[in-house]
Design brief:
Layout (H helix, E strand, L loop, with lengths): L1 H10 L22 E7 L7 H11 E11 L2 H6 L1 H5 L3 H4 L6 H11 L2 E15 L1 H9 L11 H18 L6 E14 L5
Parallel strand pairs: 1-2
Antiparallel strand pairs: 2-4, 3-4
Helix pairs in contact: 2-6
Length: 188
């Protein structure tokens, strides 16, 4: 993502930027150094409160934090949540919007400026879907034991064959959300 962002910005004549790959809990940046932070499909992997507090320290007053993720409810409606056994039960790391809003309020360093929901129509063949599971396309699949994943993969295949008439054209929607946080002025 960082390589693509860099290429996109350069193609569009934007050259005064740097990209930094870092752990959410260890941002190697000076205080007030940056204007914005982007998090893509990652907030469920780290301590959200700590992340917002860290970001507030390195971001300039009035800066932004953009969080692109999926909510638990969105996850439940996609093909994996609907048809892959135990997917919803295994993936408890995702938040709901109320959880995010509560966490943002509790940090007292940011406010939700805007929210945009996305819905993407997807299609794949059954073989492509099975391959995504085997390659652990979603980190959720890493939460299964090897034996459990094999059993659930078999059951998933049966459910897909039962619910979709064309194994070469399985269609569903994926949903995501983009939350823009504005950092509050720092208090002394």
């Amino acid at each position: 993502m960082l390589m693509q962002t860099t290429a996109f910005l350069k193609v569009h004549g934007i050259h005064r930027f740097i990209t930094v790959k870092a752990q959410a809990h260890d941002l190697p940046l000076r205080d007030n150094m940056i204007d914005c932070v982007f998090s893509f499909n990652a907030v469920h992997h780290f301590d959200f409160h700590r992340f917002i507090e860290k970001v507030a320290g390195v971001t300039r007053q009035g800066g932004f934090v953009f969080i692109y993720t999926r909510l638990q409810s969105q996850n439940a409606r996609n093909i994996w949540g609907r048809y892959f056994p135990l997917f919803i039960e295994k993936e408890k790391r995702l938040y709901e919007l109320d959880d995010i809003a509560e966490a943002v309020d509790s940090t007292r360093c940011s406010t939700i400026e805007d929210i945009k929901k996305f819905k993407f129509k997807r299609k794949a063949t059954l073989d492509q879907l099975l391959d995504r599971v085997r390659k652990k396309h979603y980190s959720t699949f890493s939460l299964y034991s090897d034996h459990e994943l094999i059993d659930c993969l078999r059951e998933f295949k049966e459910k897909i064959v039962h619910h979709f008439t064309d194994r070469d054209r399985i269609e569903w929607f994926d949903e995501n959300i983009l939350i823009a946080l504005r950092l509050r002025p720092k208090t002394i």
